[in-house]
Design brief:
By secondary structure, the protein is mostly helical. It contains five helices and no strands.
Length: 92
């Protein structure tokens, strides 16, 4: 049988874990305008049939990562899409 103190500690741990999980849901916490732009970006990708566009902005993060890999850009694994775009442009 758990003591009262142990039960309270467990409840605190569960609550902390739940709050941490909520923070991980980044898209849900983004402003509506940002979510809308991400949706438009995805729609453009579907319209192209998933093929990469000519502009860097039209490519997804994985495609940009591969370009950065070919360019030999350090720290690329920790970069987001827009960071990769800036680094690629700077390298070219």
């Amino acid at each position: 049988m758990a003591t009262r103190k142990q039960v309270q500690a467990a409840k605190r741990n569960v609550k902390a874990a739940q709050e941490g999980a909520k923070k991980k849901r980044t898209i849900a916490n983004l402003p509506a305008s940002t979510r809308r732009e991400l949706g438009k970006q995805a729609a453009r990708g579907r319209a192209r049939g998933g093929a990469a566009g000519h502009r860097l902005e039209d490519r997804n993060r994985e495609q940009l990562y591969e370009i950065a890999k070919k360019e030999g850009i350090p720290g690329r694994s920790k970069m987001g899409k827009w960071d990769l775009i800036q680094a690629i442009r700077k390298a070219r």
